[in-house]
Amino acid sequence: MKREMSLNGNLKILIVGIVLTLIVSALVGLFLFSEKLSTILFLILVSSFSILSLLLFSPSRERIFLSLQIIFLYLAIIAGFLGPAFLSVSVGPFHLFPYRILLIILWLLFIVNFLLKKGSIGVEHLKVKNFLNFLLLWFLYAVLSLVWAVDKSAALREVVFLFVNISMVFFIIFYLSELNLLKKLYFLWLMVFAIFIPIAFFEVFTGQHLSVSKLASTTHPKLAFLPTTFFYNPNDFATYLVLSLPFFLTLIRYKREILTRLIGGLAFFAGVFLLFSTRSRANLFAFLVGLILWYFFLLEKKAKLNIAVISLLIVILFISFAPGKAKYFVEAVRGQYESIIYDLTSKDPSTFSVDIRISLLKNAVIFFKNSYGFGVGAGNSEYYLSHFQTYNTYGVVKLHNWWLEIFTNYGILIFVGYILFYLSLLWALYKSFLSLEREQRIFCEALLIGLVSFFFAAMSSSTILSFKPHWFYFAFALAFLNYWRRNKEVKA
């Protein structure tokens, strides 16, 4: 009798799973019907979820589903780094590419798992709910701002971007709650970096770019040789480097194998060279600030002395055996310094000088005041700069400052909340760092350096909202904090 009831229950779940699969697949197929790839995508969705539905009969289905969800999550992260470089399909005002397709699959897996567990999903392992609650509040506020946003399409687009990115943050924290899973994420990040390095060097030496780069068709000699890899512009790639380089720094510091340290060192210095090659001054400054924090606040006295001695030896050897390269490096640094001074003093609009940044700031404050502190609405700062600016920005309609963008679009509530979110995460990670073992510090130390650097790097990119590595980085930091808090509770 019990066996029959169990079979009937499984049959019901199977039917629900197949129906859900067919409905979603049909909807996606209809949306993409005008595209050549629609049939392929439709068949992929139908076949994959039909197979998943059949797996419901397995006695170990919970374990199988968890493994599938984690696999798809890692695939989504890889696809997020690669962006729309492959298989990008237009769906009205949006574009559907592997990252978003995989996110849809993740949500469907989550829903099927929810049905399997009869409407119950365990969240006891989540120890960072205060951070997740803020992200939920931010999303709901963005949805609410559709009421007063002037440019509805821009607002809706930003709401979708927020949902997509916050979903990934949630999934990374929800599924990657064990140290071995975080290790895989760490090495996944290093692997993606290893893919980007040769592509970046190819761009630097040939001036050729992938089609996703805005420099793909440029003929300007000063711009053609700036690396972008899978990103739209050099600034975004530079921000990615600023977030990624600390992982190699801690790899060199904590791994004992000579070969691993050597490979890590080569990757680190290659990344630093490419960072200089992007000519992104804000990101260079952010990287230096991160290194200063690392040296003075995260290193022990002995480590500080060792690094000072090793750095001095490297400089001496570099000057002795490659004086020409050393001279070129000094000239490049001096050129960057002179470029910064020129931008600070120049009145030329084409330099994107401090005058323009000040004008952007003044306009943002006016928009904030006129919105009575509620913000102009999700994604509407660009529209306001295009139509209602008081101070001339010489054609610049993006704020180029993530902090200012949040302030202008979402007002005082979300802006203060985001600042507290950021500072609380930094402080919580630093507290955990003080009590961690060597194996765990390799992650935490890198995350702390990157998060500090992010404060300044976020003042460079045209928009951070659609910059997925930033969301992955915060998700990694929150997932590690979640692991540390869970581990601490178990030990107590």
Write structural notes for this entry.
The structure is a single chain. The radius of gyration is 24 Å and the shape is globular. Helix content is 74%, strand content 1%. The chain has helices at residues 2-31, 38-54, 61-82, 98-116, 129-144, 152-175, 179-206, 221-224, 234-254, 258-278, 281-298, 301-321, 323-345, 354-370, 381-387, 402-433, 438-457, 468-491; strands at 89-91, 94-96. Helix 5 (129-144) packs antiparallel against helix 16 and helix 14 (354-370) crosses helix 16 (402-433). With 492 residues, the chain is mostly helical. The protein contains 18 helices and 2 strands. It has 2 domains: 2-122, no CATH class; 164-491, no CATH class.
Choose one word for the global shape.
globular
Query: Which structural class fits the helix and strand makeup?
Result: mainly alpha
Number of helices: 18
Radius of gyration: 24 Å
